[in-house]
Write a structure and sequence with these properties.
- The structure holds two protein chains of two kinds.
- By secondary structure, chain A is mainly alpha-helical.
- Chain A is 76% helix and 0% strand.
- Chain A has 15 helices and no strands.
- Chain A has helices at 2-7, 16-39, 47-55, 62-96, 108-123, 128-151, 159-183, 185-196, 204-223, 225-231, 235-240, 245-267, 273-285, 289-314, 322-339.
- Chain A is globular.
- Chain B is mainly α.
- Chain B has one domain (81-338): ABC transporter involved in vitamin B12 uptake, BtuC (Orthogonal Bundle), CATH 1.10.3470.10.
- Helices cover 76% and strands 0% of the residues of chain B.
- The longest helix of chain B is centred in the first third of the chain and has 35 residues, at 7-41.
- Chain B is globular.
- Chain B starts with 6 loop residues before the first helix and ends in an 8-residue tail after the last helix.
- Chains A and B meet through α6, α7, α8, α13 and α15 of A and α6, α7, α11 and α13 of B.
Chain lengths: 346, 346
């Protein structure tokens, strides 16, 4: 670790006391937003009724049913998916050493989308719980292609080759998806709402289905945090420190497939969260992934839940999808921080 | 890397690299001529090759004059010019910003054009030239906003990329929102535009594009030496007597205008700007930004994709953007897979 400290920029080094405090504050923010997500919605329900629904559930009360069947699950799904996207983004940026590396640009979402479109178009899948398996398979195929092509050749998987093979994979999958969508109006009609990214209508079944995969992905990513530190200094330094670079990349790949595949299949390809949150978190923690990953894991769900709550309130009685608002709310903050030189590219 | 004690070795190496990139450019030009001949002769409205040549020489019959000069030639020219513009624009962006993923598609320029165009199509029910003009304006306005947001006593490539991510995210949110609010049929029209299409392009579309390219390409050629120096970093460039900020602004304006003009003519044809430059650099292998070769690759990809889109048996008449990804991406993946030496540029 002495080497890491020497390489880091001095401004990025913070005492671990400050970092723990930051993590706790972010956790408090997340809990607050989760409560808001249960209590606030497009359908006004008085706070005592919501509390009753949680504590003294009455199946005959429609408000109680609504809270239990809609607000609680979507909040839980939002937390799980947000954590998945934040950590997956941080891992991808570390492996590709590129601030533009995210599941969208590097083809993982496109792989999930292509398989889901095929599922709708060829197999008539309509249930969200059915999407998950297709999304998962698509993310897996895309990752294998990106990593497989990126690691061919003598020098192995360099960041630049990973980035380019991701971009090319993305292009190929998006082309095929568009080809299906342009010829099949019904599939397109279903797909365009999935594509925005939304938490509404996600049942507890979606949460239970996704949470296992996401938990596993988070564990793999957190376990690899230390190796990611060395890897992000460059392959040569990592090797000279005795690290098995290939094994770290494979662990990172497994984590990304589990996290992105599940998140994308459950709620659609929510853009921007996986890209911006790790960059923002990095401005607080510095480049140490043992802090960066947990902070991203807590901040990203806050952005997702915050955007979802705003989306329910501003378009009453309708809703704006969370995928639209994560960008509209998150991007101005992000740009302001970039301008304030708080955010630096990894 | 390079043995500086032997300047003549370096000089010989450079001469060889230059010969190679000239050869590549010649081969690509030959591919373009052959592709244009095929596109003019074969496919829907077949005209024998000698009739094509005599028609181009001004001795065609009434029917060949119509088919060649009014239908096929403008479309072929539009494909070549659009591809050229996107290829050069992508190469400038990626070199100037020092990031192989930083093409106008990814950092928001094309997204700006898309948001403006989709707004026209979905909210105001417009089509045709108005959409083109508005798209061009959208691209230019987005670029101006990005530049101003990035400016802090100067502009750095990495900050521009990060601001671009934020701006692109906001605009993508707008596009997604509009797509979910529209009728299915209108949204599908918008999807065709977003994919990029050359269907029904005539001389009215070719002339403005040709005039813009005739103005912009010489400017790019004049600035390309500076681009080469800017790659080495601002300080080295200043040391070599380059006025960094005006040169960078000039190059950015050219790149944005090229992308905007091409987008106005055909829509943001998917992935040409992103994929052409990495392919071009890998083919040219001379360590320069390879603007000419990238432009020619872009032209070849669009021409080939458009011919395939019109004539593939058993498929509907897809817009060209559906196939550019399918044509360019596998080729780039293949180039990446067989790369066996470090430093072949991304």
């Amino acid at each position: 670790m002495a080497v890491t400290a020497a390489v880091e920029r001095p401004t990025a080094r913070r005492g671990s006391g400050t970092l723990v405090l930051g993590l706790v504050l972010a956790g408090v923010l997340l809990v607050g937003l989760a409560l808001a997500s249960v209590f606030v919605g497009s359908k006004p329900i008085p706070a005592p009724t919501v509390l009753d629904a949680l504590l003294r559930f009455d199946p005959a009360n429609t408000d109680h049913l609504f809270v239990r069947a809609e607000r609680v699950p979507r909040t839980l799904v939002g937390i799980a998916v947000g954590a998945a996207l934040g950590v997956a983004g941080a891992v991808m940026q570390a492996v590709a050493r590129n601030p533009l590396a995210d599941p969208g640009v590097l083809g993982i979402n496109a792989g999930a989308a292509l398989f889901i479109v095929t599922g709708i178009n060829a197999f008539g899948v309509t249930a969200l719980t059915g999407y998950v398996w297709f999304g998962f398979a698509g993310a897996l195929v895309a990752s294998l292609l990106v990593y497989g092509v990126g690691s061919m050749g003598r020098e192995g998987a360099t960041p630049i080759k990973l980035a380019l093979s991701g971009a090319a994979t993305n292009a190929a999958f998006v082309s095929l998806t568009t080809a299906v969508l342009l010829t099949d109006t019904d599939t397109f009609d279903q797909f365009r709402f999935w594509q925005v990214g939304a938490l509404s209508g996600r049942s507890m079944a979606v949460f239970w289905q996704s949470s296992g995969f996401i938990a596993l992905g988070l564990l793999v990513a957190l376990a690899a945090a230390r190796s990611l530190n060395t890897l992000s200094m460059g392959d040569d330094i990592a090797r000279s420190l005795g690290q098995d670079v290939t094994r770290t990349r494979i662990a990172a790949g497994v984590a990304v497939v589990l996290l992105c595949g599940t998140a994308t299949a459950s709620v659609g390809p929510i853009a921007f969260v996986g890209l911006a949150v790790p960059l923002l978190a990095r401005s607080i923690t510095g480049p140490d992934h043992r802090w960066l990953l947990p902070l991203s894991m807590v901040l990203a769900p806050s952005l997702v839940l915050g955007a979802d709550v705003v989306g329910r309130v501003i378009a009453r009685p309708g809703e704006l999808q969370v995928g639209i608002l994560t960008a509209l709310i998150g991007a101005p903050v992000f740009i302001a921080m970039v301008r304030g030189r708080k955010v630096a590219a990894p | 890397m390079i043995d500086t004690s032997a300047p003549e070795v370096v000089a010989r190496g450079r001469a060889r690299a230059r010969r190679r990139s000239n050869l590549v450019a010649l081969v690509l030009a030959a591919v373009l001529v052959a592709g244009a001949a095929v596109a003019l002769s074969l496919g829907r409205g077949f005209v024998p090759l000698d009739d094509v040549l005599s028609t181009l020489a001004g001795q065609g019959s009434r029917s060949t004059n119509y088919v060649i000069l009014e239908l096929k030639l403008p479309r072929v020219l539009a494909a070549v010019l659009v591809g050229l513009a996107f290829g050069v624009s992508g190469a400038i962006f990626q070199t100037l910003l020092g990031n192989p993923l930083a093409s106008p598609d990814v950092i928001g320029i094309s997204t700006g054009a898309s948001a403006a165009a989709v707004l026209c199509i979905v909210a105001f029910g417009l089509s045709g030239t108005v959409v083109s003009v508005v798209a061009l304006a959208g691209a230019l306005a987005t670029a101006a906003v990005m530049y101003l947001l990035t400016w802090r006593g100067g502009v750095t490539g990495s900050r521009l990329v990060l601001v671009g991510i934020g701006v692109a995210a906001i605009l993508l949110g707008v596009v997604s929102y509009l797509m979910t609010r529209a009728q299915v049929a209108t949204a599908q029209d918008a999807l065709v535009w977003l994919t990029g299409s050359l269907n029904g392009r005539g001389w009215d579309d070719v002339w403005p594009l040709a005039v813009l390219l005739a103005l912009l390409l010489p400017a790019v050629a004049a600035l390309s030496r500076v681009l080469n120096v800017l790659r080495m970093g601002d300080d080295s460039a200043k040391g070599l007597g380059v006025s960094v900020e005006p040169s960078r602004l000039g190059l950015l304006v050219c790149a944005v205008a090229l992308a905007g003009a091409a987008t106005a003519a055909a829509g943001p044809v998917a992935f040409v700007a992103l994929l052409a430059a990495p392919i071009g650099r890998r083919l040219a292998r001379d360590g320069t930004p390879a603007l000419l070769v990238s432009g020619l690759v872009g032209a070849a990809v669009v021409l080939l994709a458009d011919f395939a889109a019109q004539n593939l048996p058993g498929l509907p008449q897809y817009p060209v953007g559906v196939l550019t990804g399918s044509v360019g991406a596998p080729y780039l993946l293949w180039l990446l897979a067989r790369a066996n030496r470090a430093g072949k540029g991304g």
